Amino acid sequence: MPAPYETLRDDLSFLRAIAAEGRDRPLTAGPWIFSAGLIYGVASLVCWAIVRRLIPLPLDAILWCWCAAALIQVLWLIRLGRSRTIPSSALSTTNRTVAAVWTALGWAIFASFLAACCAAWTSGSQMVWMTFPSFVLAIYGAGWSVTGLIAGRRELRWVAALSFIGAVALLPAFRTSALFLVYGVLILCIAALPGWRLMRLARDAGV
User: Fold this and answer.
1) What is the model's pTM?
2) CA–CA separation, 91 vs 27, rounded Å?
3) d(CA 206, CA 202)
4) Could you read off the pLDDT tens digit of each residue along the chain, which spans 207 residues?
């Protein structure tokens, strides 16, 4: 068998082994995903309230709102990493792989956020932010797709599908205040709720 086919076969065997292992152990990434969904979902709703003049703040406060959300998330992740101890029984290749996937995606979103800030600052235009929510939703879709595959959880693929659909569904809301509202609700649905569900399953399993 040619080397490329052998490599592909080995990769598929590795993924099947991870998926088989993941079915027997709860996923431990729930608290991290839940916190990100809750913090950024609420931040987006606050931005919507600012645009709609429900909160008496200037529009420039929107950028500071996102910066504050990012800072809160970083501080919370540091605290969570120091305080949360995962039992050895829950440590598995699946959970390590899922953690690596979401960590990489988190850094990708953070790097893109910094790039968008620089682009908005140098160009003097806020148009760069119009497509950023769709980018984030697509990133979450990729994360849930990979998590569902390596953990053998088909229900997570439905969350991935909702993420991808949401990324496209935001298009009509571009350049309107509804963008923040729809994005905030979607982030709560594709991150906070699934993360909370994973936390509950892990708690029921004694993790």
Assistant:
1) 0.81
2) 9
3) 6
4) 455 555 655 555 655 555 555 555 678 888 889 999 999 999 999 999 999 999 999 888 888 898 899 899 888 888 887 776 665 555 677 888 888 899 899 889 888 888 888 887 787 776 777 788 899 999 999 999 999 888 888 889 899 999 999 999 888 887 788 889 999 999 999 999 999 999 888 887 766
